Amino acid sequence: MARVSIEHLHKFFRGPRGEPVVAVRDVSLVVEDKELMVLVGPSGCGKTTTLRMIAGLEDIDEGTIAIDGQVVNDVRPKDRDIAMVFQNYALYPHMTVYENMAFGLKLRKFPKPEIERRVREAAESLGLTPMLDRLPKALSGGQRQRVAVGRAIVRKPKVFLFDEPLSNLDAQMRVQMRMEITKLHRRLAATMVYVTHDQVEAMTLGDRIVVMKEGQVQQIADPLTLYREPANLFVAGFIGSPPMNLLRGTIRRCGDELDFEEHPQQPIMNPELSTFRLAAAEAGKLASYVGRELVFGVRPEDIQSGAQAPNAPTGRRLKALVEAAEPLGSQTYLHLTTGTCALVARVEAGSRYEPGNWLAVAFAPGKGHFFDPASERRII
Known about the structure:
5-stranded antiparallel beta sheet, 9 helices, CATH 2.40.50.140, 380 residues, Rossmann fold
């Protein structure tokens, strides 16, 4: 397999008046040999354009792309030894499953016995053997996607590229196909670059994840590092479902301790509930920020409720109004308001939470994150 190295990549398109529109800005990253790297971000962030430049389907305006040590900026797509799986399957409707999978090998004039062996092996690994004589119209969406993956596998390329391959499938089929792609990656020990806008898909698939926004890389890390140590406000709000709760406020000194005083985001019902005490570890790192505005972030699972909250330090406890509850079987999402801000908490599904009732909640010590609102970078 191969290592993909991208250095200072730029891509510009032209707007309606001929003005340059930046699609990708100074992207640098390395996909290691046998790694599955996921590019994730909202629509228009440049992830698919980056993938298409790796494939050679888009010209590079600045920067370099190297595959297995060879710069491929001017190498034609068919000579880059890559295979791409598209969002819309891109199957030939008049060809059988076997013919679709074999087509690329026939164009490269592989011997018939070799084509037969490769197609049969790929079909067996993907559970497509009983369907080799069917046309694409006789297949389900998941089966068509497996054919598209199989067509890539038979090539045995240096690099596999996936462009949002599961976005047309229903929720249950997406989960199944994610597991199949994960097992396929382990079995093939292949280098893969996978593009998606679904952060859950990114977290479950990627060895490492590249979070992108407006053509720029925001953070590159393994899934747990992204979740636990987001580099900035965008990553904190994008990674996680539900996303991190983000509250704006100011650090205030109260005797020998520090408080976080929230800035109201909606009409105040209980203004006395708008502050909470910082844990000792937090206060030690934020002493130089007294009087300055910061953004406090807390994950839904780090908001304690019910029986847990009374055990929290007094200054960390709040009363929150339950606005809505989303029971999901093994857990429940609570939509809360303290009177100054809205929160989402993830709690165990052992109790009923009625909208309109007040609930004791607390922020778990040492689990909070603080961000500089000007630079948006994470402080702690």
